[in-house]
Design brief:
Layout lengths: L10 E8 L5 E8 L5 E7 L6 E3 L5 E3 L2 H12 L6 H17 L4 E3 H15 L1 H11 L5 H13 L1
Helix pairs in contact: 1-2, 1-4, 3-4
Cofactor: Zn(2+)
Family: Belongs to the NrdR family.
Protein name: Transcriptional repressor NrdR
Length: 150
């Protein structure tokens, strides 16, 4: 494992334990070059379906893209990184259980919006505003009105 500080190619594991959800292993490593310590997370590489983009392109499912988008929506909100990770874990499980070999970004986005709506309404609106690409303030206000009705 390459050191993130000095780029030395070798490090040794000094501690290893399961993460909170048990779906990954957290490893503390020490660089053999500069002796600094860093953490890595190891998870099983699963065969997930391809993601069909709105423009017709297909690409592999990228967990980090989803985590990044949700983090932005949840910025300065009372939602921990652990909650975000659990949300993405649930999404991955749902996708893996599906017999489909391809999944649309629309299906992923709708599922995430439903989940975020139950977690935090501000995060939901932020995510929806990017996901739905509101053309003007009227569409944004309409979404807010729907949220207020519920």
């Amino acid at each position: 494992m390459k050191c993130p500080f000095c780029s030395h190619p070798d490090s040794k594991v000094v501690d290893s334990r399961p993460d909170k959800g048990g779906s990954a292993i957290r490893r503390r490593r020490e660089c053999e070059g500069c002796a600094k310590r860093f953490t890595t997370h190891e998870r099983i590489e699963e065969m997930l379906p391809l993601v069909c983009k709105k423009d017709g392109r297909r690409e592999p499912f990228d967990r980090m893209k989803i985590v990044s988008g949700i983090k932005k929506a949840c910025e300065k909100r009372p939602i921990s990184i652990d909650e975000i990770e659990r949300l993405v874990d649930r999404l991955e499980s749902k996708i893996q259980e599906s017999p489909e070999r391809e999944i649309s970004t629309t299906a992923i986005g709708e599922w995430l919006m439903k989940e975020l709506h139950g977690m935090d309404e501000v995060a939901y609106v932020r995510f929806a505003s990017v996901y739905r690409s509101f053309r003007d303030i009227g569409e944004f206000m309409q979404e807010l009105q729907e949220l207020l009705k519920k």
